From TrEMBL:
The lineage of its organism: Bacteria, Pseudomonadati, Planctomycetota, Planctomycetia, Pirellulales. PANTHER family: MAGNESIUM-CHELATASE SUBUNIT CHLD (PTHR42759:SF1), MOXR FAMILY PROTEIN (PTHR42759). It comes from Rhodopirellula baltica WH47. This is ATPase associated with various cellular activities AAA_3. Gene3D superfamilies: Magnesium chelatase subunit I, C-Terminal domain. Residues 39-105 form the ChlI/MoxR AAA lid domain.
Length: 128
């Protein structure tokens, strides 16, 4: 089963989408939303992207598909990112959880390839 999961193809767009979600958790990074700067003490690292993609592959198979969709990454973002991201005291004092921050990041991130590639927040990331 693990070999089958690893063989599921992933488009460049899905990889960029997962990368965009994870990069937006990192305080001080380019294109990070203001609410992340205000609420997050520590963001997710590069392995979070790997686990979003791998989990997306598994979820796609479980859903009867042979390719990963944006919805797979969105569904896995809270469980993958919640323990890789630490909210700061300001968030804790307001009762804001990492899941709520992840939900806001998902809402703030374009989902189509065209929107994502034209969004100035991500152009430098994708150029490297």
């Amino acid at each position: 089963m693990q070999q089958l999961v690893r063989q599921v193809p992933v488009s460049d767009h899905i990889v960029r989408y997962a990368l965009s979600l994870v990069r937006q958790t990192r305080v001080g990074g380019e294109g990070v939303p203001d609410f992340v700067e205000d609420l997050v003490g520590w963001g997710a690292g590069p392995r979070a992207v790997q686990f979003l993609i791998l989990g997306g592959k598994a979820r796609a198979l479980l859903q009867g598909r042979h390719h990963v969709q944006v919805e797979d990454i969105q569904a896995l973002a809270p469980p993958v990112l919640r323990h890789r991201m630490v909210v700061n005291f300001a968030a804790e004092s307001e009762g804001i959880t990492s899941d709520e921050v992840v939900a806001r990041i998902i809402d703030a991130t374009p989902t189509t390839e065209d929107e994502l590639s034209r969004d100035a927040r991500f152009q430098k990331i994708f150029a490297s």
